Batch of 2 targets.
Target 1
Amino acid sequence: GAGVSQSPSNKVTEKGKDVELRCDPISGHTALYWYRQSLGQGLEFLIYFQGNSAPDKSGLPSDRFSAERTGGSVSTLTIQRTQQEDSAVYLCASSSGGPHSPLHFGNGTRLTVT
Amino acid sequence: KNQVEQSPQSLIILEGKNCTLQCNYTVSPFSNLRWYKQDTGRGPVSLTIMTFSENTKSNGRYTATLDADTKQSSLHITASQLSDSASYICVVSARNAGNMLTFGGGTRLMVKP
């Protein structure tokens, strides 16, 4: 498809389990972003990729969170030993990388930790 | 500290009416200001992007203004429709490595028939 694709769209997991969230950006987009959005709240920055490198990972809330991007395309966000406070919608966005380029968002993965 | 404040937090208007949403920011050095629309359960969609030299930009019934001196922006919606019900997010980009984005908390708009 032409847009940013995220999978799964919904994920329910038990506390303590690891989860992997996937993002397929728009083809050719060099910049990729991960955000977290709790219910009724604004977007919280997690990490930014330019190509395969992550020049800014300042938003990752703890060392349980990690992300990688391979081939300058697909990215995975991994949360280890999930906690209930990790429950949120995780949004991925990509852009062509120019300073005035719009971000194109996926529809997110809704993570629920029980 | 870079901040983006939006007001009001929520707004209810009748279909066909106009409304204006506000955004104040303290991001520096300024690169551009963006408005996004986020429907419930969906990712945000870009409405406008304005650079320092632009003080107004339209996208259909949406018109954004920017006053870079006072660091204020507004989003005006004309002749509202039920489909305008969404959250509207103001985002300011800093002119630095990585073009760091600062997000406002959004204004939740409900348009009633």
Target 2
Amino acid sequence: KAGVTQTPRYLIKTRGQQVTLSCSPISGHRSVSWYQQTPGQGLQFLFEYFSETQRNKGNFPGRFSGRQFSNSRSEMNVSTLELGDSALYLCASSLQGREPNYGYTFGSGTRLTVV
Amino acid sequence: DAKTTQPNSMESNEEEPVHLPCNHSTISGTDYIHWYRQLPSQGPEYVIHGLTSNVNNRMASLAIAEDRKSSTLILHRATLRDAAVYYCILRDGSGGSNYKLTFGKGTLLTVNP
């Protein structure tokens, strides 16, 4: 079956601009989570969506937002980009998102560079 | 979240077994032990998980100490494709904060040909 698809793979933006990243989860998975990975902070949880509702949010400023559509596809948006937003953004999907005995499937990520 | 401790790095030779340790002395009775790995330029990949008993799958084995304060991920015959960062993560099985994965720094495994 198809895995988690993230688009685009690479993106270069200028400070102050905004960006939208897309994630298509595995068919049948209703939970989509987003993570940011940087060399300094490692992998950090951004937010999680289930049935078009944000259930949980990590410790990131309000410039980071997301949404989920009825087909479970998700987008995340970063407004007023800063240099420190340069990172690999990863999306993960899961059946329900809270099953402790079930693994997440990650996409390959979107590499965002802010110049 | 309960904390895990892993060595920063480990080295192995190709076709030899690799034992990757993880300490989780503050683990609670409902925490599941998960392992993920991240190959270069890819997202993390689920490897295996367990609660109390040892587990085997096609990728690896997970050995859990009797007191559950430590665990070991076992790759039976390392290949060059197993070179990755390996993360040991605890997931709350009580329904509390198990909606996310809390990653530490993991163990960078180098496999020598």
